[in-house]
Each structure stands twice: as C-alpha cells, then as structure tokens.
Write a structure and sequence with these properties.
Blueprint lengths: L7 E8 L4 H12 L4 E7 L4 E6 L7 H12 L4 E5 L6 H6 L2 E2 L7 H5 L1 H4 L34 H23 L4 H28 L6 H14 L3 H32 L7 E5 L2 E5 L9 E4 L9 E5 L2 E4 L1 H4 L5 E3 L4 E2 L4 E2 L4 E5 L7 H12 L5 H32 L3 H15 L2 H20 L2 E3 L2 H6 L3 E7 L10 E7 L5 H12 L5 H10 L8 E7 L3 E6 L2 E6 L1 H7 L11 E7 L2 E9 L6 H10 L4 E5 L4 H11 L3 E3 L4 H14 L5 E6 L5 H6 L2 E4 L6 H6 L2 E3 L6 H35 L5 H19 L11
Helix pairs in contact: 1-2, 6-7, 6-9, 7-8, 7-9, 8-9, 8-13, 9-14, 9-25, 12-13, 12-14, 13-24, 13-25, 14-24, 14-25, 16-17, 24-25
Length: about 775
C-alpha cells in the first residue's frame, strides 16, 4: 500500500496586502520553493496557506518571509495557526501547526484596521506587535485600502490637482507659467504614483501600473499634452479610489456575515462575576449569559431559561428554547432571560471557532476557474508586454511612421492589459458565494466544492438522520413463547445500553428504568449486524435478520413497517422489537426542489430493511432505493453510480456524519447533515449543513449556480472589454483615457458585480 508523505500546513495573514496581482506573484514564487507541496494566496482574505513536506529546509520559513517582502516590502506576516486537524489530515497524513491565531481582530479586523494609513501611504506600525516586515512604511501604489482619513486626504489632493488643472486649462497663461501650473496639478494628483514607480524600479519590479501610468503621463508632458497628462492621472486616481472602496466594502460585507465570534465571557467565580476573554475560560467553569449577549463557549445550561437565536450558525429564523440540561453553542444569541452555563469545550474547540476556521480557510481550496485565471494571467502578462514592445518598435522601422506615435500606442496597450479585474473580482465572487452559503447555515469547505455543486446530477441520500428524523420509538414488542414483553424489552435495553445509535437509544428510553452496568460484560458491536453482550451471565444477541442468520438462529419477521431488532438469549430466539422513525417534514420538499433545478437522479442507500426503505422512498418520490446495505456496500453503490455518470457530471452523497465517513469521502461532493456541534460531520464532509433540513441541498446548488454566473459574467466582461480596447489601442483609436477605463473602471464594475454573490437566493421546492 502506498503511504502518503506527511505534510505540515502553515498559514500567514499578509497584513497590508492590497494588490491582487502581487498576491498572484507571491503564490507563484513560493510554490516553486524547495519542499513546498502546495501554496495558495487568497486576496479576498489576505491569507497565504502553504503545505510543506520533509524536504522543506529549516530556513524555509524565513525564505518565505523574504520572498513576500521582496515583492511587497510593506506587508507584515502574522503567522496564523489552527488547532483543528483537517479532513486531509485524516486521510492523507497532513499535520497542522498547533498555535492559536493571535486574535480575531488582529487576523481579520485589519480589513478595517489597516485603513489607518499616513498620507504617503505608510502603514501604522504597532511597536508592541511582533511581526515580520521589510522596509517599514513602504506601500504599493496600487492600493485597495482606503480608510476615512486616507480617503479625505486623497480627495483633497485630487481636488487641488483638479482646481490647478482647471486654472491652467481656462486661464491663458502660456509658456512656462502654463507648464508650472499643470506640473503642480500633476504632482498633487499623481506624485505618489511617480514616487512609487521609482521605488518599484529600484526593487526590480518594472511593469506594474505605477510605472505604466507614470511613463504614459510623463510622456504626455514630454510631447506638450499637459492637460491630457494631468487628466489621465486624475481619472486613474479617482478610479483607484473607487476600486479600493469597492474591494474593502466587499471584504467587510463578506466578513460581516461571519461576525459571530464572542468577544467576552462573564465568568462566575463564587459570588463574583467578571468579564474575561473567552480563551481564558476552562472546561467546567461557570459562565453567565445575559439577554442580548452571544453565548461565548459551548456548554450546558444549569440555571435559567431563555430563547436562543441560532441564525448566525444555522440560518434558522425560529429561535430555540434553552433550559436546564439543554446544550447551547458559542455563537447563539440570548434573546431573553439570564442563563447560567457550565462550559463543556474550550474556546479553541468550540462550535464558533470551528465554523470560523472552516469558512476562513474555505478560500484556500481554489476552484478550477480561479486556478485557470491564475495560470492565464501568469502567461498573459509577459505576452502582452512583448507585444507592446514589438508594437512600439516594429511599425516605425518598416513603415516610416514616427516613433512617438507608436510608443504612445504601446503605452496605451500596456495600461489596458493589466489583469486586475480578473485577479481581484473572481476570488471575491467565490468568497461571496461561500459567505452567502454560510449565512444560510451551509458551510462549504472550498470554492472548488462550490464550483463542483454546479455539475451535480445525482444526489445519493442516507436514510436515517438524513431523510428521517432519526428519533426512533418502539412501536411493537413481539416476544417468543415463554418470554414476557417486559423481559424482552429489559434484555434489549441492557444489550443496547452501551451503543450510541439512535435505535439503541430509543430502546433504552422505552425501557425507562435504571440499568445496572455491572451486569453487562463482553460487549461487542458487530458492524452491519448488531450487538453481542453478556447480560447477567447470559449471551444476548440484538440486531437485524443478518445477525440471526449468521448465528444460525431460527426467527420470524413480525408484521408492520419499521426497523426490526431481533433478540436471542443463549442461542434461543427471544422475540423482536419494531422501531419506527419519522420522515422529516422537509424531506419531500427537498426531493422536489432537486428535481426542479435539474438533478437527474435521486438515490437512497440504507442498512435498514427493504420494506422500511421502500415505504420511505416511495413517499418521498426517490428514484432508486437500495436497502439492507453494509457500509462497504454503500461505497460499492457509489462506485457503481460513478461508472455510469457522463462527462463532468458529479455525484453528491448526503449523510448525517455518523458511520458515513467512507461514503462521504468516496463521493465527488460529500454533504453532512445536522453538523451543528457534530465533530464527525465537520471533519468528514466537503459541505456541512448545520441544520437537519435536506432542502438546503437545493439552496446550496442554487447559490453555486448564481456564483458561477457572476464569476463568468466578470470573466467575459473583463476579457471582452480588454480585447476590444487592446485592438483600439494598437490601431491608435483608443487614448490613455480609454486605457484607464478599461483597467480601473472594469475592475470596479467587476468587483461590484462580485458583491451580488452575497445575496444569492435560496431555492425553494
């Protein structure tokens, strides 16, 4: 058997990263380092995620930092590490670093916080904060971060530049006075761009927007086109301002969707209550949650009653009640009443931490479309630069045309060519779709899975806990001759008392009396069959018909629909129990909604009896039903369906996260139901539906399709505009005005379009 070499996962917040093109360069360069198995830089979350193997050198981390700083000297690297092990760790041996993110505000609040910049673009450095940085204060001119103070200063500069340009244009000074006025206007509007271009050239980064805009506008001054030089720089700066505001607004909108992290906890010690950070609360501590506050940690209510708003975690609008004995999760909001809670999980292991980590890391698993755009931009930029150089040199040599005319055309061509609209808007589009899904209680572990949902044509369901409630009740007791009903129920309850299966719990609940655990020995769970245990010295078998057949015990099948649990004592048949499960009210609507949105085939796989499976399947309108399956048989059925699918079609498997791990892993898209607080579901699946509503599968597919539409609108719009303007620029029809619009203007429109992904609608059946 081939063993997969373990990899170590590391993450950094790239504080101060504002250039999508630079994010792409960082990803490309770090990916090529020795020992780096994979690298992803997400511009939307400003996160660098890297997996390394055993060949990664000890000095590798400092090399990564140096690489980032060489491309973006002002960026500070804040190492972000998670305590949870990913699904890939479970199946491929991945190991994660084990240090906590320093703080939520520090790691993600810089979406807002890094907006406090000095006028020259220098970022404020907190002297108490440890970070890895290059030259302090250097910033990239292509900035997409505009705080209120910076925006006011930018508007003031642009206003002064516009006023001076208007004076130069309207007042007939002439000569050196006209040049001086326009030069002052130019420096007010674009002096920072020229200065940044000089800095970038010194670092070996020539072909960026700062250089291109500086060269083009200085060229306009050189040939006496002062008004055009100033006007183009003004328009470029205004466009950059709007672009930055749009990107920041998009980021804030997305992060606001997951603003569920509790900031404080009311810790009760004796008779006193003090406000502390949730990270300082331990398991077993007592916390108090007042009306309007978020529950800071997972726990059990020990005093008080209240209604809990769970919408931030589940998307459910109907509050749920909490009373003594009820479990509450971090992120719930207390609507009324004061409750006292005993903490059952540390903050690092709480529901809200796991959900935040899952959503924040989702963008590191990039969709094929994102990877395509990255590869496209990587090859596209040098091709355009070479074409522009040829455009500037070849026509004048062979046609006798003036060099100045063709150099101007080449500069227009280069400004138009910047791929910013694609590398900025597409990650934001996917991240917006993931954010919209999370607001609906659907956690998608990566934009690759969001994209895969578009091609799902077959949805395979587990039955128990997925289409049915998993809340079993004993509806029939059928003892064999010489056995009373009460004795049969008692033996079944004792045999099943160590099992966590819903059927076992229903039998114990029906018995309703105290179970003497000391009388139960040699407990053994037989996968796909049932249980064998010694109860009061007698060997009790409790399970399905296959168990009886395996042990050679004659039995009979009682009448009625439901799950049958057969019992045998010391090799003699003792009777059977009938346990019934209710179909979820939402299940029929879910199947109908899937059919309406074009899912061609619905399949149900269950280990339950054929009669029960057929009854449930027919009521819901499921196309294919396969019953009495062992776990390995479910995998075989998925593989059979895989062999039947055509082209890009995908198969989704929907389970409750209990005993479904192999099938969730084998399907193209694994979807776990009822993931609220379920570690197994969150770890095993690609998509986690936080509630028990199967209709949200159709909603997830609807969100995926809307996101894909928005992403492809941006791709077609951006490339279409650029192709048209590149041709116009090459033929001398487009000027620098059109060039700036086709770069900055298109990016602004594409980013604003990406924000529509946040409002992706649910699909109703």
């Amino acid at each position: 058997m081939n063993t997969v070499e373990p990899t170590v996962k590391r993450q950094w917040i790239l504080e101060g990263l504002h250039c999508a093109n630079c994010a792409m360069k960082i990803e490309n360069r770090v990916s090529k380092m020795d020992g780096v198995a994979s690298c992803s830089v997400n511009f939307a979350t400003k996160t660098l995620t890297m997996e390394t193997d055993s060949s990664f050198p000890e000095t590798g981390v400092s090399q990564v930092e140096q690489t980032v700083v060489s491309i973006e000297p002002h960026v500070r690297l804040l190492e972000k590490r998670a305590a949870a092990v990913s699904r890939s760790a479970a199946y491929t041996g991945t190991v994660r670093g084990n240090v906590q993110v320093r703080s939520h505000r520090e790691a993600h609040g810089h979406e807002h916080g890094d907006e406090h910049e000095h006028e020259d673009g220098h970022e404020h450095e907190d002297e108490h904060e440890h970070a890895h940085a290059g030259e302090e204060g250097h910033t990239h001119g292509h900035s997409h971060s505009h705080g209120e103070g910076e925006t006011r200063r930018t508007l003031l500069r642009l206003g002064v530049g516009a006023a001076l340009a208007a004076a130069g244009y309207l007042i007939p000074f002439g000569g050196y006075w006209e040049l001086a006025l326009f030069l002052l206007a130019y420096l007010a509007a674009g002096g920072n761009v020229v200065w940044q271009a000089v800095r970038n050239i010194a670092r070996g980064q020539v072909f960026d927007e700062n250089f291109l805009m500086a060269l083009a506008t200085i060229g306009a001054f050189a040939i006496g086109q002062y008004p055009e030089g100033v006007a183009v720089m003004l328009f470029y700066q205004v466009g950059e301002l709007f672009q930055g505001l749009a990107v920041n607004r998009s980021r804030r909108s997305i992060t606001a969707l997951m603003d569920i992290r509790p900031e404080t906890a009311r810790l009760r010690t004796g008779e006193e209550t003090k406000i502390v950070s949730p990270e300082r609360v331990n398991i077993g501590d007592i916390i108090v949650v007042q009306p309007g506050e978020k529950v800071p940690l997972d726990g059990t209510v020990i005093e008080g009653r209240a209604m809990m708003d769970t919408s931030a975690l589940t998307g459910e609008s109907v509050p749920r009640s909490a009373e003594p004995g009820s479990a509450v999760l971090s992120g719930f909001i207390n609507k009324n009443g004061v409750i006292t809670v005993e903490v059952t999980q540390t903050f690092a292991e709480s529901a809200v931490s796991k959900i935040l980590e899952l959503v924040q890391n989702a963008s590191n698993n990039k969709a094929k479309t994102e990877n395509f755009i990255t590869r496209f931009a990587r090859g596209y930029t040098p091709v355009v630069v070479i074409t522009a150089a040829l455009l500037a040199v070849v026509p004048p040599l062979f046609s006798g045309a003036t060099f100045s005319d063709w150099i101007y055309r080449a500069l227009v061509f280069l400004v138009i060519s910047c791929p910013c609209a694609l590398v900025v808007s597409i990650p934001l589009g996917f991240f917006g779709g993931i954010g919209a899904a999370s607001r609906s209680g659907i956690l998608i572990k990566g934009s690759n899975y969001l994209e895969a949902l578009n091609d799902v044509k077959t949805v395979v369901f587990d039955k128990t806990g997925t289409l049915t409630k998993g809340q079993f009740k004993v509806t029939g007791i059928h003892p064999a001759e010489g056995v009373t009903e009460s004795e049969l129920l008692r033996l079944a309850a004792y045999a099943e008392s160590h099992s966590g299966h819903p059927i076992a719990e229903s039998i114990v609940a029906a018995y309703g009396q105290r179970i003497e655990a000391s009388t139960i020995t040699d407990y053994n769970e037989i996968s796909g069959h049932g249980i064998r245990a010694s109860v009061e010295g007698r060997i009790v078998l409790a399970g399905n018909a296959r168990l009886m057949e395996r042990e050679g015990i004659a039995f009979w099948q009682p009448a009625g629909t439901g799950t049958i649990v057969h019992l045998a004592v010391d090799g003699q048949y003792a009777g059977s129990l009938v346990i019934a499960d209710e179909v979820k009210e939402d299940a029929a609507r879910a199947i109908s909604a899937l059919r309406k949105i074009g899912v061609a085939k619905t399949v149900m796989l269950t280990g339950d009896a054929s009669a029960v499976a057929e009854d449930v399947g027919k009521r819901l309108g499921i196309g294919e039903i396969h019953a009495e399956l062992l776990p390995q048989h479910k995998v075989e059925q998925i593989e059979r369906l895989e062999s039947q699918k055509a082209g890009r079609e995908k198969i989704a498997f929907v389970g409750d996260g209990i005993n479904d791990t192999p099938v969730l892993a084998r399907a193209d898209v694994g979807i776990a139901m009822g993931g609220l607080g379920s570690d197994a579901a969150i770890e095993a699946a690609d998509i986690v539906i936080m509630t028990d509503e199967p209709s949200k599968i159709a909603s997830a597919i609807g969100i995926a399709r809307r996101t894909r539409t928005i992403v492809w609108q941006n791709i077609i719009f951006a490339l279409g505009v650029k192709v048209v303007f590149l041709q116009l620029g090459a033929f001398g029809i487009a000027t620098m005005w059109e060039a700036v619009f086709s770069d900055v203007g298109v990016t602004v429109l594409a980013v604003l379009n990406s924000m529509r992904a946040l409002r992706a609608p649910s699909v109703q059946g």
